Predict the structure.
Amino acid sequence: MPTELPSLPTQVDLELALAYYAVLVEVARCSQTITYGSLVERAKMAFPENATVQNAIPVSVGRRLDFVRAFTNQRQLPDLSSLVVNRSTGECGVGFTRSFNPDEARAQVFAYDWRSVETEFTGEVAAAKERRKPKKKITEDEASMLMYKYFSENKAALDPAIKNFRRQIINLIMSGAEPKNAFAQVLTQ
């Protein structure tokens, strides 16, 4: 079963994942591996204006690769993180080798045409950044209007008892719930 993308990676996770992904795609095109330290250094060279990338350290690379790994797993793509190896052992960490054969994983990475998904990864990072943004506060009047609009458009399919939950629906919408979800939530209580 494909891994889901992390629901709320940090801004730093996203910035570094974007940089590391770009470097890893280049490394894959050359059919090579790269150490954690070299990955950080190459990202710094590729993104000299990005302060987050410039402040990156090799110790935190694994966490940042989680987003890349989840993206590839979700789309059933080869695992780019298999290219990142420990400098002293020349191999992936135990967490990877315990579950996967690194040589097989790398062969799949090298054979894949990464140009076909480059914009998808950028889009996924942009979508994750958007999810991180705080939602605009909705006033009670706005929530009432949204509730009424949803009610009007779906009246025939709604339980008549929904009218008893007006206040709860408005409160849910004010707290950020979509009207459809607010109506469904009060009916299942």
Remarks:
- The first strand starts at residue 34 and ends at 35.
- The chain has a mean pLDDT of 88.
- The chain has ten helices and two strands.
- Residues 11-29 form the longest helix (19 residues).
